[in-house]
Amino acid sequence: MFKVLISKIVIPSNISDYLSRTLVVITVATTLLIGGVLIIQQTLYYNKISKQKSNEYLEYQKTYIQDIVKNELEYIRIQNEIFKQNINEEVRNNVTQAYLTAETIYQKYAGIKSEDEIKALIIASISSLKFDMEYEEVFISSLNGSGVYYSRRPEFTGKNMLQFKDVNGSSVVLDEINLLKSKDEGFLSFIINSDLNSKTSPNKKISFVKKFGHFNWYFGSKQYVEDYFPKFRDEIARKISTVRFKYGGYVFMNSINGSPIVMDGAVYKGNMNLMEKTENIRNKVFLQELDVVKNNPDGGYFYYQWNKMNDTIPSEKCSYVQLYKEYNWLIGAGFYLDEINQSIKDQKMKLWEDQKSSILTILLILILLLFIEGIIISGFNKRYKSDFERFFNFFYSSQNNYNQLNISELNFDEFRRAGIAANEMIMLREETEKKLHQEHRKAMESDRLKSAFLANMSHEIRTPMNAILGFSELLETDNLSEKDKLVFVKQIQKNGNMLLNLIHDIMDISKIEANLLSIRKRPVILSKFMEDISNHYAELLTSRKDKDILFKINHEVNHDVLIQTDEIRLRQVIDNLLGNAIKFTTSGSILVDVKLEADMIHFNITDTGIGIPSDQQAAIFERFMQADQGDKINIGGTGLGLAISKNLIQLLGGSIQVKSESGKGSTFSFYIPKG
Ligand code: ADP
User: Fold this and answer.
1) CA-proximal residue: ligand 1, atom 3 (nearest)
2) DSSP string, 166-221
3) Which atom of ligand 1 is the closest one to the Cα of 637?
4) What are the tens digits of pLDDT across the range 381-400?
5) What was the pLDDT predicted at 9?
6) Strand 203-212 to strand 266-267: parallel, antiparallel, or no bridges (unpaired)?
7) End-to-end CA distance of the chain
8) 3-state secondary structure at position 403
9) What spacing in Å lies between the alpha carbon of 580 and ligand 1's midpoint?
10) 665 in the Ramachandran plot: left (φ > 0), alpha (ψ -120 to 50) or beta?
11) Nearest C-alpha to atom 16 of ligand 1 is from which residue?
């Protein structure tokens, strides 16, 4: 069932359907194949490009965040410079302020008051100076190393300070004095372990010193960097927290000891420590950060899972982190890898747009091809259907006629060749049918002739039989004269001979048909042969009172002419022809003309009888054939005489023909070879 359905769909019963479907299938398959290959190529190309792009994008993003971090580090560096300069300015300002105050006092009282009074005035005015910071001060020390004035450390007054050292072992006061040996003023820095401001760990302290030459003094002011640091750090943190870049990117900042400074894009105010394991995810990431900066002093990348802002599902993130060494700050920024996916998605959309237009183009080409195919197929169908139509009409009409197919009207060579064959077939059929028709007619005729023959035969047999029987009965009659008896016996003999002749004829035709009749040629003296015939027929016609016929034989045959022939059969032929001549002639003449040629003897037997219609002259030589001669009353005969004669002449090596005109007479001419 399924097989049948498939074969019906795939191989339709109609040539035109088959052709159209095949063409459509081939076209659609080819177009789809080419289209498919193109689209696959496009997709492969896209995949290659998008891989390239995604790598490029990754590199680009990595560079991008690195640049952001580097920018921020640069910003911190500059701010740090400014920050430090500010501290320097602060201490320098303090010292300058004190110096100018001292100088003013000195200038005012020099020579008026004693040196000690002036010194006391200077110290008093300096101690009353006000500063921004709580622990700020200006101290006075002697260039020989003994303390003069320390506002918060009065015990230093008069004390030799040369031994005072910072945590690194630098002699603080000695360094100051050494500096002022070559310059009037200058900056120095130390790491101081403890001081009045209750710092618990070593801290950087910046100092500015300026020589006051009038008393061999110098003024100085020192500031812990740390006192200014929180403000500076907060400023940096605030600025960094404002940095944003694409797809919600931000910069983070942690202290190396685990304190977050800027976290999730905001300044961190709490007291979380990223070193603690309780901060599970953050701790893990922080440890990665530490690892990176430990191995890469100039910064490096690391990958991890992180929640996007306003998102609860973690995504893969790549961050760049670098250490700001001076303060041990970790500055970093990252991007989510799925941003690449977003860009790939955008490209995919573009590819799909491209593919859509490719598919549309392919479909348009397909439609165009199908359209063109449609035109070609319909043109072909028209031409080939017209050829078929001609063939159908030809075959239908050829049932009734022999019309030929007009080859020049056919469109295709194949049909033309078939047409030629069909025309030959028709011609052959016409010939065969005509032959058959003739045969049929012959058979019918032969049938009819046989019936006529039988009728004639019965007549031909019955007539002499009746005569024989009648005369036999008459012979029994009493008182018959001898003369009558003789007449009756002659009649009986005559009719007996007729019957015998008839039987001979029948036997002859049977032998001829069975090819059993043989010819026995012997020397015959032609003149003698003709004389016998002449005598026989002259006597016969004399005895026939119903005939008024002049009988004559013309021949110039010498007595010594000897021919080789079957005398009996030749005589039989002549008897047949003369018998017919007498039978169909009532009055007039019967002439026998014999002519000798080199090899042949010609016989012409001419009568003035009823003649034979021209359309029947050929047929009378057929067996059982008797011509239709109008008012001819049944004259008797079997229709065998001429058929036998014709065959005998042929067997003797000659031929016979007739010339006749209805009502005027007939001439039967035949010739035979002399030997
Ligand atoms: P039969 O004479 O026994 O009928 P034949 O074969 O001798 O048969 O002759 C065939 C027919 O030819 C005759 O029946 C007659 O119609 C025609 N025919 C033959 N000879 C003559 C003739 N001399 N004149 C006219 N018709 C003839």
Assistant:
1) 637
2) -TT--BHHHHHHHHHHH-SEEEEEEEES--TT---S-EEEEEEEEEEGGGTEEEEE
3) 3
4) 899 889 889 988 988 888 88
5) 60
6) unpaired
7) 86
8) coil
9) 5
10) left
11) 627
Q: Which is it for strands 203-212 and 217-224: parallel, antiparallel or unpaired?
A: antiparallel
Burial of 546 (0-12, 13-18, 19+ CB in 10 A): exposed
Which of these CATH numbers, 3.30.450.20, 3.40.50.150, 3.30.360.10, 3.50.70.10, describes 241-341? 3.30.450.20
Ligand 1 center from residue 455 Cα (angstroms):
16
* Pocket probe mutation, ligand 1, options 583, 589, 645, max atoms within 8 Å of Cβ: 583
Looking at residue 621, what is its pLDDT? Answer: 92
Residue to probe by mutation, ligand 1, list 642, 661, 664, most atoms within 8 Å of CB: 642
pLDDT in tens, 163-173: 888 888 888 89
Query: Which part of the chain has CATH 3.30.450.20?
Result: 241-341
Distance from Cα 667 to the centre of ligand 1, integer Å:
12
> Which helix H or strand E contains 603, and what residues bound it?
strand 600-607
Range list for CATH 3.30.565.10 in the chain? 518-673
Q: Check residue 630 and give its pLDDT.
A: 66
Q: Which amino acid is at 469?
A: L
Average pLDDT, the chain: 88
Mean pLDDT score, 107-115: 93
348 pLDDT above the threshold of 90 = no
The pLDDT assigned to 11 comes to 63
Ligand 1 probe mutation, 608, 626, 638, 645, most atoms within 8 A of CB: 626
Mean per-residue pLDDT, 534-557 = 91
State in Å: Cα 100 to ligand 1 middle.
187
Distance of CA 629 from the midpoint of ligand 1 (Å):
10
**Which of the four CATH numbers 3.30.565.10, 3.40.630.10, 3.40.640.10, 3.90.350.10 does domain 518-673 have?**
3.30.565.10
Q: Which residues line ligand 1 (CB under 6 A)?
A: 576, 580-581, 584, 607, 609-612, 620, 626-627, 629, 637-643, 666
- Centre of ligand 1 from the C-alpha of residue 377, in Å: 73
For 607, the token pair is 């009568």
Mean pLDDT across the stretch 494-513?
87
Please give the number of the atom of ligand 1 that sits closest to the Cα of 576.
7
Report pLDDT for 345: 80
CB atoms closer than 10 angstroms to residue 135? 16
Q: Whose CA is nearest to atom 18 of ligand 1?
A: 580
What atom of ligand 1 comes closest to residue 581's alpha carbon?
Answer: 23
Q: Which one, of 366, 374, 285, lies nearest residue 332 by Cα?
A: 285
Cα(554) to centroid of ligand 1, in Å? 23
| pLDDT score recorded for residue 622 | 86
3-state SS of 493-544? HHHHHHHHHHHHHHHHHHHHHCCCCCCCCEEEEHHHHHHHHHHHHHHHHHHC
Task: Find the Cα–Cα–Cα–Cα dihedral 30, 35, 36, 41, rounded to 10°.
Answer: 130
Query: Could you tell me what percentage of the chain is helix, strand and coil, using 3-state DSSP and rounding each to the nearest 5?
Result: 55, 20, 25
Give the number of C-alpha atoms closer than 13 A to the C-alpha of residue 482, restricted to the C-beta side: 0
Backbone Cα Rg of the chain: 78
Instruction: Considering only residues 35 and 300, tell me which one the structure prediction assigns the higher pLDDT.
Output: 300
For 161, residues 6+ apart whose C-beta sits below 8 A from its C-beta are 141, 145, 146, 147, 172, 173
| pTM reported for the whole predicted model | 0.48
C-alpha 489 to ligand 1 mean position (Å)? 29
